[in-house]
Amino acid sequence: xxxxxxxxxxxxxxLFTTTTLVERxxxxxLKREFSSTLPRFDLLAQLxxxxxxxxxxxxxxxxLTTGGNVxxxxxxxxxxxxxxxxxxxTDRRAAIxxxxxxxxxxxxxxxxxxxHWIADIFATLSPDDRRALHARLGVVKDRVRSPRSTT
Amino acid sequence: xxxxxxxxxxxxxxLFTTTTLVERxxxxxLKREFSSTLPRFDLLAQLxxxxxxxxxxxxxxxxLTTGGNVxxxxxxxxxxxxxxxxxxxTDRRAAIxxxxxxxxxxxxxxxxxxxHWIADIFATLSPDDRRALHARLGVVKDRVRSPRSTT
DNA sequence: GCCAATTCCTTGATATTTGAAGTAATTGGC
DNA sequence: GCCAATTACTTCAAATATCAAGGAATTGGC
Lengths: 151, 151
Description:
Two copies of one chain form a homodimer. The first copy, chain A, has helices spanning 3-34, 38-48, 56-62, 67-79, 101-122, 127-145; strands at residues 54-55, 83-87, 95-99. By secondary structure, chain A is mainly α. In chain A, strand 2 and strand 3 form a beta hairpin.
């Protein structure tokens, strides 16, 4: 085992811990202030960016979860009238999910608070630090997206 | 909303995505090669570092999960004879969990593979980049550990 | 046009995690 | 020493996630 291996291991542990702590803080704030959760928020955020709606499969790819889970989440959000589901006119297998007006309003309120929480957390870093972090995480992300052998 | 807010949001999304992708890759590799999972591995890793064992509460703090979940995980690992559980001699409320010999052996095999996988993933970054990432994540982590108001 | 392969989604069984409530043991103020 | 408060852990139900199997619709080769 080289020194680099140990350093990489420590880096991964820190990456994991930091992300988990931030995630938890956001999730509990969403619960407290809006009686919602992070997975629900993430799903709504994807829809907000897609005025024409998204298919179930697109949603599950974007929020990194399984299809079954998306079915479950959408059913709950639909029951609360925050999203609608319609059969695609061009492909009757596909369901297209959209935000309702109420959904947009609800999301907008959460998004504003959410953004403040995040800005607050990352304000400890300088803009340069944030850019540096963003760029390097991008390298790791690309690596994991398209894994290749060690050679 | 300032530009910095948007940048922070993007940074958070990337942090989350990257971590989730790495996590998933490790978890599925552990399943494939050792029929184990990341939470189990993490728990064993904590015990490996603590020759005198750890109490349930210490375990749940260190692996960032709830007490109920640790009870569940330890019960499963105990059934597989990878860990033992004894009542603390000094505090009869407390249970002390330790690795068995079989547990140590099992963990050692997994740890080696695990380290390679991680080294492989982070090898795309230079040593300097890894240090920079580690340091900046530390700032964020400390911030989340001890939250304070925005001022 | 027809059929096998594929795609999109849902379902149902399981697995995992959380959160709240409960039990047992310890501690500290008196 | 005694009792209220605290601490350590477990339990149980509910929330959330995965996985494999299945049904309906579409596509592409012929």
